[in-house]
Amino acid sequence: MPITASALPWRPHSNTYFRAHSIFEKRAVSKWEPEQCELLKRCYAQHGPDWKKIAQIFGLSRHQVKDAYRRLKAENLIRGMLAC
C-alpha cells in the first residue's frame, strides 16, 4: 500500500487504502438479493451502525455492508420537487 499511496501524494492514505480494498474485495455478484436486503435492514435496526458486527454476519467487509445499506437507504428517498 505505501507504493500506491506514494504514487498518489495528493490523495489521503485512508482513501487509497479504502479504494484498494473495494477493488480487491469486490464480490462476483454485486446485486443483493431481496432476502439479504431485509436481513441487512434487520441487522441495522438491531445493531445500529456497527458495520464491523454486521459485516461478520454477512462475511463481507464493513465497507461493503455500509455501502449496501447506503444504497438501500437512497432507493427510498423521494427525488425532485415534483416527485409524488
From TrEMBL:
Record's keyword annotation contains DNA-binding: yes
CDD domains the UniProt entry points to: SANT
Domain of life: Eukaryota
Protein name per UniProt: HTH myb-type domain-containing protein
TM region(s), chain numbering: none
Keyword Hydrolase among record annotations: no
Pfam family, one: Myb_DNA-binding
Keyword terms: DNA-binding
Domain (HTH myb-type): residue spans on this chain: 31-77
